[in-house]
Amino acid sequence: MFRIPSIFLLAFQSALLAQPRLKAEEPKQSFGTVRQRDPVVLKYQVTNAGDQPAIFERYEVTCSCTSATIPVVPLLPGKFAEITVSFKTDAAIGLQDRVVKVYSNDRKGPLKLRFRGIVNE
Fold first, then answer.
1. Tens of pLDDT along 6-45?
2. Cα–Cα dist 17/11, whole Å
3. CATH topology of domain 22-120
């Protein structure tokens, strides 16, 4: 019978458990009340709480009024980076509630950044 030495199993298991883990300091933010056509810019501080570099792949928004700037270099374990979200209020009126999904190699799924506020005419 073929036996795998336990040191190899331990190394294999450690490799499977090693992964990046993105966490936002404040994943939910409010921009308060603004007038229509006023620009809204929010900054989210993101930390890699994992033990492998996090690689940002893309972001997803629900409308063209929202955009984001994500890091282009890997985020090392224990380090932080800033994600900037811009919201164009030209066609928005009333309560606004948006989510930006940031995709990376974090196996737990996309990081969700949420913002809300009120746009007056």
1. 555 445 554 557 899 999 999 999 999 999 999 999 999 9
2. 10
3. Immunoglobulin-like (2.60.40)
